Amino acid sequence: MWAGATAALPAQNSLRRLDGTALNPSSMAATIERLMTLGKVPGLGMAIFTGNTVAYLRAFGVRNLDSGLPLTPDTVMNAASLTNVAFVMQLVQEGALDLDRSVSEYLPDPWRLDAAFGELPTDSRFRRITARMLLSHTAGFPNLRQLNRGKVKGIGR
User: Cis ω on the peptide bond leading into residue 73 (within 30° of 0)?
Assistant: First the structure.
């Protein structure tokens, strides 16, 4: 077991998958720990919800490699783009967004969004960018754009 692994909260003998089959928290934890070792993942937090209720909550590994401090269910972590999918898919479910429609059709003034980089007004390819592309990071924008200020010379180049 990884150092710093915490007990599942709330403790349950099994969880139910969407198909109704049981998922044993102990075997799930063993699989997670094995995959963390293979992937050299130092820490991982997991929550499984049933409706609006936390059915399983557990932290594995460490939150800091240098200190070796354990990851806990209360550790604050950066979720990066993980929450984008949930938000966008809620809009899709409500019919407010089409994953394959150009996002420029939803924006009142797309030129203003990238004014700091000066790219969109000179590159018409932005009209082909869809929400699906943005969610899968395939729109052609460099990753961590704010760290590349002044170094970007066009979309996807």
Answer: no
User: Do 50 and 23 form a contact (C-beta atoms < 8 A)?
Assistant: no
Task: Indicate whether 154 pLDDT > 70.
Answer: no
By the 8 A CB rule, do 42 and 61 touch? yes
- Residue, of 120 and 64, whose pLDDT is higher: 64
Given the structure tokens 């991982």, which residue do they identify? 44
Distance CA 7, CA 22 (A): 19
In a domain, 31, yes or no: yes
- Phi, psi for 55 (deg, rounded to 5): -95, -25
pLDDT in tens, 103-119: 888 876 655 555 555 55
Overall number of domains in the chain: 2
| Last-in-domain residue among 74, 102, 125 | 74
The answer to whether the beta carbons of residues 6 and 72 sit under 8 Å apart is yes
Contacts 24+ apart (CB under 8 A), 130-136: 130/99, 130/100, 130/101, 130/102, 130/103, 131/88, 131/92, 131/97, 131/98, 131/99, 131/100, 131/101, 131/103, 132/99, 132/100, 134/84, 134/103, 135/81, 135/84, 135/85, 135/88, 135/99
